[in-house]
Structure prediction request, 283 residues.
Amino acid sequence: MAITSDWHIHTHCSCDSACMEFETLINNAKKHGITDFGVSDHYHTRLQEADIAASRVEFDKAIENHPELKGRFHFGIEATPMSKWEVDKIAHGEYSEKPTYGIRHGGPANAPVIFDFDDEFIEKYKIEYIVTGVHWPMYCDTDLQSLLSEYHRQYMFAATHPYTDILAHYTWYDTNVYPDVKNPFADFSRVSETMRSELKHALLENKVALELNGFVLSEHTSGLLPKTFVDEYLGWFADMQKSGVIIAQGCDCHYKDLSKVNYDSISKIYEHYGIDTDKFYCL
Ligand SMILES: [Zn+2]
Ligand SMILES: [Zn+2]
Prediction:
């Protein structure tokens, strides 16, 4: 069946290269048959509070101009788990380079992971849902096992945190963080049965949805990573769904419009692997 929802979309309010205007997002969603969707700009630390404030103002304006979208178009954020070490440093102004993405060097390995926001923040910006995206390892060693363990630690933090509604882009790896280190997730079989099982139980117990992410899918379907990954990865999503885990659609678009998101072909790929889009997450 057709995909009719999308919960991971960035706008020009995001701190990165995302550049979509709200009006474009609304028009494009309509064109693609996306009836239930949300905006989810990045929030790493308190330095992005201004971005979320701007996003909220534009969201309110958009709903005012499109009252028919009330209850269908939602306001969310994409939150990043951060090292408590860097959150504290940023809170005290103890940094030299601008830490838009946190302080990405010099921290202790295995420091506690936290979100740099609280209930008050959620209430202030009337945040309806939170997509949590793990974006980087926290100063761990760069051998394969250390990276896999570090990502698992953060995925478990995300999946068990009461703020998380959707776990974004599972296994997405930013090759810019350590340019010399190969993607530890290039082979999905490296994610052990124990890690998969722990994550599944955490998602089920905490009613957190697992996202099928546009970035991860395009990296794998464009041949950047082996086809065996796609088979194993999407087969695993189908199994997760059969076990009761809610799957969420997230294109993770950072472009000026949704023209590069082909919901028709994505839904056919999902269908091929036995993933039921009718049971997708919806707010
Ligand atoms: Zn992300
Ligand atoms: Zn994103």
Notes: Residues 107 and 139 are 6 Å apart (CA to CA). Residues 78, 133, 135, 168-169 surround zinc ion (ligand 1) (CB under 6 Å).
